[in-house]
Amino acid sequence: MNNVYENGALQELVYEALEKVIDPELGIDIVNLGLVYNVVITEDAVCKIEMTLTSMGCPLIDVIDADINREVKKITEIKDVEIELVWYPAWTPEKMSRYAKIALGIRA
């Protein structure tokens, strides 16, 4: 995979867009929850997002998937979005940002 924009401004725009995707159950965005593991934009402007969920079988994956696609596709340079769900490393509350932990009342 050619990672032309992997560390660039376009990748930052994608992370900003993903911060608008709110987990419906927890009310916190997927970036601060630590669900997004990697974002790569290929030469052909495909945004590949590697992410996980707080649990396998999450009933809200379709909602989250639709929200990711809607927000990331607002970036005019992005032609398509591919989401890969991964289960390793497993998500744990330690992956959350300080902001998310405070919002959820978890002591850091």
Automatic annotation (TrEMBL):
InterPro entries linked: Fe-S_Maturation_MIP18, FSCA_dom_sf, MIP18-like
Domain MIP18 family-like intervals: 14-84
Protein name: Metal-sulfur cluster assembly factor
Organismal lineage: Bacteria, Bacillati, Bacillota, Bacilli, Lactobacillales
